[in-house]
Predict the structure.
Amino acid sequence: MTAQNQDIDHREASRLNWARMALDDGGVLLQRASVDAGFRSYWRTLGTGLSRIVMDSPPEHDDVRLWLRMRDLLESGGVRVPQVLARDVDAGFLLLEDLGGPTLAQVMTPDTADEWFDAAIEQLLRLQAIEPPAGMGEFGEALLQRDAGLFEEWFLRRHLGLELDCDDTDRLELVQRRLMDNALSQARVMTHRDYMPRNLMPVLPGPAVLDFQDCVRGPVAYDAISLFKDAFLSWPLERVDGWLARYHARARQSGLPVPALKTFQRDADWLGIQRHLKIMGIFSRLRYRDGKTKYLPDIPRFITYLEEVLPRYPELRALQELMDSRIKPALQTKAIA
């Protein structure tokens, strides 16, 4: 047995022993509840009592204290978050309420989307109304530059095998700079950064918000466009525009610092483009660095998102031209191969 396998076996035994101790039930078993893109994992208890969730955050990779601090902050603002029933922060184990199996992404239908998005908007407005604490991370220049680098390094170079010439590089940098300047110019609020149906649980009152540990002070339009232009679930553009307008009206009524609707629409569209490029880079990195293959099949979703919105903005024409001349042909070649 390798040292790595020994470590895995030891972690599994520690997780199970801790769950049995926390529940005072020596017969409890654990079943994988969900797979995370990072190091954190979730396990559902099986036994005679109420089902619970064990969150396993290996301390060498993930400090559970950060998750707990953010959970408490969001709850203080009225956001529906998982309840913590027991904890061992040094070992990286938490016992949580079980919010069920399917996420909002798995239960939403075209007929129920309006109702669920209204509820998700309500939770988002509560989150955005929370004053970001001193020292909170900033969705600023450094983060935006890192995001831009993900697209070029992992999607263009590693996945597509493209090396841009000087002209293409200059055009891409110009677009990235315009997207960054737009993000930096927006009013700042508490920002989840992954506020999408996959991270929302369909419980009432709710939906409950998950994966919030990386909240930052960021642009006001970011979470709204993330909600409606999801990485794993697509909707017709006219419905997305309608939901953005609905969010905008409620945000203004709540006193959040959103600009006029026309400006907000552009801000949201441009943040969406920035986010789509970043996620294409992240999904490529998950495949080639981490060996996680299930994310790349969603790449065409982002190409569609870009093709829907880029024609609205002549200022970003260079990205459309790059897609037409280099990116889409390379994707087609890769698909045929």
